[in-house]
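Lab intake sheet, docking and co-folding queue.

SAMPLE TYPE: protein with bound small molecule
LIGAND NAME: 2-acetamido-2-deoxy-beta-D-glucopyranose
LIGAND FORMAT: SMILES
REQUESTED OUTPUT: full 3D complex as structure tokens
PRIORITY: normal
SUBMITTED BY: R.K., bench team

The fields below were copied directly from the construct record.
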Amino acid sequence: MLRVWVLAGLCALTGVRAIGQATCVTFKSSASTIPIVARGKASPILIAADDWPGVQLAAADFASDIQKVTGVKPSLTNFTSSAKPSTPIIVGTLGKSSLISQIVNATQLDVSGIQGKWESFLAREVKNPLPGVASAYVIIGADKRGTIFALYDHSEQFGVSPWYWWADVPTTKHPELFVESSGCSHGSPTVKYRGIFLNDEQPALQSWAMEKFTNGTTSSPLGSPFNHLFYSKLFELMLRMKANYLWPAMWGSAFAVDDTQNQFLADMYGVVMGTSHQEPMIRSTPNEFSLYGKGTWDYVGNTQNIKDYWLDGAKRAKPFESVYTLGMRGFGDLPLSEDTNIKLLQQVVADQADILKSVYGTDIEDIPQIWTLYKEVEGYYDAGMQVPDYVTLLWADDNWGNVRRFPTASERNRTGGAGVYYHVDYVGDPRDYKWITSSQISKIYEQMSIAVDRDATRLWILNVGDLKPYERESEFFIAYGWNATRWNPENINTYVSTWAQREFDLAPSTAQKVSDIVGNLTRFNARRKPELLNATTFSLTNYREAENVLASWTNLQQASTTIYNSLSAEMKPAFFQLVHHPVLASATLANVLVNVGLNNLKASQARLSANSHADTAEKFFEQDYDLEVQYHTLLGGKWNHMMDQTHIGYYYWQQPMTNTMPAVNRVQARKAALAGVMRIVPEGTLGAWPGDNPSQCAQGYNCPPPSISLDQYTPFGNRYIDVGAGGPIPFTFTVSSNASWVQLSATTGSISPKSPEQRIFASVKDWSKLSAGANTATLKFTATAAKQQPLTVNVAFTATKPNIPAGFKGFVEGGGAVSIEAAHATRNTAVSGVSWKEIPEYGRTLSGVTPWPRLGNNDASFAAGAGPTLEYDFFNYNTIGGSGNITVTTFVSPSFNAGEKNRPLAFAVQLDSGAPQTSQFMPNAPPGGLPSGWSGLDGFVANSIVSAVTKFTGVSPGAHTLRISAIEPAVVIQKIIVDTGGLQPSYLGPPESVVLR
Ligand SMILES: *[C@@H]1O[C@H](CO)[C@@H](O)[C@H](O)[C@H]1NC(C)=O
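RESULT FIELD (auto-filled):
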């Protein structure tokens, strides 16, 4: 901890902007620095005319980045032997640049650390590099991108964010700029190909690009706006964040034909092109096939035409660096046909190999090729489909951030290796999510760290939708693939704070606040995607859930607003795009929905306040559009259309064609409720008193008066009773109790249409003075209105004090349940070097715990009860209906088996010294399919949780220990709930129970 703090402090001191990488830039000279810009003069930059054109481009960016920071533009020239500049910056690619060859030969510079190492680089001071030059700062890449990444790495440290254009991140000015003579270096990245996939690009990205990069008409035969002007901007961004691989936009677009410069420019910049999992042989399909293909997309009936079509694709791509997608899917990313079989797909891939042989010559094993095992194709593979060893197997997530399968031990030595296709945006079942950021960096880290451990590191590709607003999550995915050793459970929660320092030039303490905001923003949007929320997602009656959700959003909004207001005008647009807008927009949606829920409920309770919730919901519904407009009008409309995505009012999985206000109810504001002026609604019920209501009791009429109960260790420490207006008639009310131990938050109040609700809290004055067991009181609510008889409602109030032995330490039952965050174990015991480790900021409520290291017991299972164990001491004074039964629900992440195929995820639950019960919470999936329970609006991915239920019998009230032990690796547990008879429905479960220490 201390070390992390010291490092963060150092960064702040030097002002260097970097996320995790070693830094070699400083803004103050010392004995060990070399000037980039000093005393108004910039060191000249030398490059070789025979270096890669992409390196030339990056060097030009490097020179203008220096100017952005210092105001001084360095000269950038091709080296000639007559030049003798003082302390130049010399840039070049090993084995390509004649200048670098000359320096390495003349100085015997040791380049063995990078030679032949994919994308690696070194930079340092070299003495006497050239005749007449005493010293230079030399930046050498092992290959084209090694040099490019070295340049952009320095630029980032100078203060030029990769997102300076794409998110308008300002560059902090410094008069002088230096590098340490020892320089910076980087070895080969963890993941060889690190890419993004522009997808689902209508309505936002496409409409935006049409406005910004065309004059309304395009030369694309498909009318696509994604021309070389657009892609040049994207390539630069990608290289600045050290991505090297792209699946281009493909909705109504075809990269190679939309603009004939696209392929050429990608290669020149240094971006490796591929096509998505459904578009084989570097051709955008179906779009290109519709334009140029002959016959139908049916490999059996139209073999030769399809082969010719693919041959043209390979010939066209041959001059450029590419990764070939193999295989075949049907149009619209659907299975090929009913009778697609393994033999046919094997034939397709064999024919694709022949095509590549005919185009490239005989040796095709060195051509990077991938086969995405997406949906049904994964089933074919598991059923025995043969894939050539040199082909990279691309494993896919379930489109919801859970990787479906990782390479098994026997699959880890294929020459083609393996990779992962992952999503932060999706169109499909159970619902599109493509509006706003809703993926947690902690979760991306958790899943991709398994990929690293399981050697799925040849290629990672992230479906980024429109790219905005997933800037931060996209960069993390790439950064983790660039250097996976940099991030671990101990420091993963510093990624966003260092990111905030880099992007917004913030002090560490403010950056930490931004990190907290982002952590909560993505947590709230990940526990259920905003597209899947409705007015009753969060309980309106139990655990104060909906109102606490709303309060959390309000806090977040205030925290973000405070920082936003403190920023300079220049900084505001970046913060708005990257933090503030997603916070405001998500909070606004929550306000619409919770207010609709309260409106619907309160109308059914004949409460006048229903109407003000309707007004509030409608106000926020309009505010939602205001925020869209604010985003679109930012910076003179630079991002117009980028927030076009609809997101309120889904009728099925697909996006609605416009936003629709959810239905609100109105009560007649001038009419008095039949049951009288006053409505009494205690906490935890849908009912209302007096009068009839279906939720008061089973038959719905002649119901008994309401009752509430409070245990000593109920987390909130009190219960509330809402006193509301049943129409327009003003009244005053009194509350009294017949027991002296009752504490009331108020004993009088007045209600009128202007102030139609008051909440009264009932609690216990002093639990120590209460006798053990149930204590009962009657709370008497009396309303007095002009020209009316007083109206009285009695509420029975029971306060229960459990008899807990002195000295007990642990969680205590409250409200008939014990709720425990998994990370808050009483004891955590390792076995064979494996122990449960917390992944901070992960999941729906606090964090997740998972067996670590990720391979668990060397990739083997533990027997039930024998694995590393989490123990939770708790005390219960009830069992379900007094039967001796309790139910333990463990909230587990909806992820998949990361080991051998026939080993479903599992852990064991044990009570005291009873037998451990094995929980296999994720059912086996059919080949290529998803397990039952996965789909639907109440499925695992919609809820972002799996509830693993274990039952225990013969349990007596008292102190117990719940033991959770690991069986399989990659299980992530978030929260544990013990139902002792009082558990109420809610989305997130009860708040954590009281702990006696
Ligand atoms: C260096 O030479 C190359 C190749 O002729 C040329 O494309 C490039 O523009 C030159 N760079 C500079 C900075 O003059």
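REVIEWER NOTE: The first helix runs from residue 2 to 14.
SIGN-OFF: pending second check by T.M.
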